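quick one before i forget lol
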Amino acid sequence: IDGRAEQPTHQAEVEQIEKDLRRTFPGHPLFADEGVGLSALRLLLVTYVLRDRCIGYCQSMNYIGGALLVL
């Protein structure tokens, strides 16, 4: 043991976020292609996963985040 704390990985959550990004309001122009909307939503969701490690990423958070970005 080298004394360094093991950092938790959130690879599974990030992979699920990537799958859900394209499912989020696919007909809305903000989320078309790989534009600013998808980038902002990705950043929002990954940041939340890192901030609240107890909850992490849950199904449908992409819609909540997407709706907030549209406002």
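fyi Residues 45 and 61 are 8 Å apart (CA to CA).
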